[in-house]
């Protein structure tokens, strides 16, 4: 069974097709959105949690080395990694607020996947963080479905956050793809988020049109000019339909932060 997977900067969501209509699945407290947050006793607990409680394989030497270091570090700190040691979404935020000095908390890991200068061990860590979130979401989705999920179409921005251009995009998509495969997806394909956002509108077109799609996400705002119409609907590769793209690294997260920052600064002036 396949799903559409929005692994977003601010929130994640998944949908399945039922009677030719996409249907969102609930991920947390009856909501279809899961905030992109993770909390664990330590950074190393995430890697051990994947291995110990979900038998997630390590496909590279760097992942294996990370796991060995994680198990050793947790043992030295006398930390027992339990099945509920890693929390996600609002549950992770609540755990962090209760004890911010004693837990490892990550918000919006997608923002860092295209960063320049990441060392192999840092790439491996981000892969584990993304894998843990994807695995949790997959399990939540499967609890509402009659069969296991093994295929996913994952949305991706035209340009990930980062200054490395094509190299940054390849690095970020590679992390997402490897994480998804390790989380249990057999087949993974990627679709540009502006294309995905415009597919519903494209279904109403009877001829080719030039369409401006404005995608305001959690971490970026993208404007894309696309060719859309009947001749494009069944094409898996939409690269040729992308006529132009512009964007900035400002999104919904910044709008959330701005009023809080303004209030804080005003109170201290």
Automatic annotation (TrEMBL):
One of its GO terms (molecular function) is ATP binding. Keywords: ATP-binding, Nucleotide-binding. Pfam families: HSP70 (PF00012). Belongs to the heat shock protein 70 family. This is Molecular chaperone. It comes from Klebsiella variicola.
